[in-house]
């Protein structure tokens, strides 16, 4: 087994352990229990649980980046809608496991003020997602789908809006909240920057003949293995989806993030 294979196995085990135990109850042993490796072997690769989790955040961003690359053929407005939905919803068929993952990533984010490696990688995730949205907005301006505007300012506003919606949905258990935020964002944000002959997609996943898969969280489910969804957001999704959330919302479900949030939450919600 190569080093990259070992890393992949450990990252998947970290995802599974986070889903089952949450961040506060996450231990090196709970991660090792999801692999065929011992706890001592985990510490051969990582000096501490904190170092492992910090790399897991980086792993989510890398995964979300791969997912984003698959959307480059979409028109900018559809690409933006896809990223928005990764932030808000994670997977189109979010399971309880992915919901648990996004919650765990939210827990993890609260530790960032006390752990520099977490803070540094979450900051990288946030920067990545903001720059991604900026690039999509600029592509839309160049393509005539968006009117000229300050893309950095708009990306910052969108990140804060979407990330806040995802956090409130997770903490208050109000699924309708993200639908309301999406609808309001179309009316009060996107309509102001769209060209006169362009509409923001009203529905998720199906857009003008394109089928968009909104995965943002690490997933080991059989239905996503073929698409290398060991993550979000992104979700992704997040984050993405990290599952982005990236929690970032990102989770990514960025998810990320994105929170990767991903859901970063973006989390990369």
Automatic annotation (TrEMBL):
Residues 10-55 form the HTH tetR-type domain. Residues 211-221, 231-251 have a biased composition (Low complexity). Residues 260-269 have a biased composition (Polar residues). Residues 76-190 form the BetI-type transcriptional repressor C-terminal domain. InterPro entries: BetI_C (IPR039538), Homeodomain-like_sf (IPR009057), HTH_TetR (IPR001647), Tet_transcr_reg_TetR-rel_C_sf (IPR036271). Keywords: DNA-binding, Repressor, Transcription, Transcription regulation. Residues 206-269 are annotated as: Disordered. Coiled coil: none annotated. One of its GO terms (molecular function) is DNA binding. The keyword Transcription regulation applies. The keyword Transcription applies. This is TetR family transcriptional regulator.
């Amino acid at each position: 087994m190569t080093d990259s294979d070992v890393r992949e196995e450990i990252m998947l085990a970290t995802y599974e352990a986070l889903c089952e135990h949450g961040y506060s109850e996450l231990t090196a042993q709970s991660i090792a229990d999801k692999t065929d490796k011992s706890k001592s072997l985990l510490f051969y690769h990582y000096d501490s649980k904190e170092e492992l989790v910090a790399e897991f955040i980086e792993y989510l961003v890398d995964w979300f980046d791969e997912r984003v690359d698959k959307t480059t053929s979409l028109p900018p407005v559809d690409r933006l809608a896809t990223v928005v939905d990764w932030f808000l919803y994670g997977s189109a068929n979010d399971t309880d496991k992915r919901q648990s993952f996004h919650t765990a990533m939210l827990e993890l984010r609260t530790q960032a003020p006390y752990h520099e490696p977490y803070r540094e990688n979450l900051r990288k995730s946030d920067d990545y997602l903001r720059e991604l949205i900026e690039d999509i907005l600029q592509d839309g301006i160049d393509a005539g789908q968006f009117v000229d505007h300050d893309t950095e300012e708009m990306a910052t506003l969108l990140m804060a809006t979407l990330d806040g919606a995802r956090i409130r949905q997770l903490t208050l258990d109000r699924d309708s909240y993200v639908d309301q935020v999406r609808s309001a964002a179309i009316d009060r944000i996107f309509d102001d920057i769209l060209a006169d002959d362009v509409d923001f997609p009203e529905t998720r996943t199906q857009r003008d003949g394109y089928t968009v898969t909104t995965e943002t969280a690490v997933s080991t489910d059989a239905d996503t293995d073929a698409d290398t969804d060991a993550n979000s957001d992104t979700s992704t999704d997040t984050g993405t989806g990290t599952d982005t959330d990236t929690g970032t919302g990102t989770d990514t479900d960025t998810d990320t993030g994105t929170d990767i949030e991903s859901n970063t939450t973006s989390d990369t919600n």
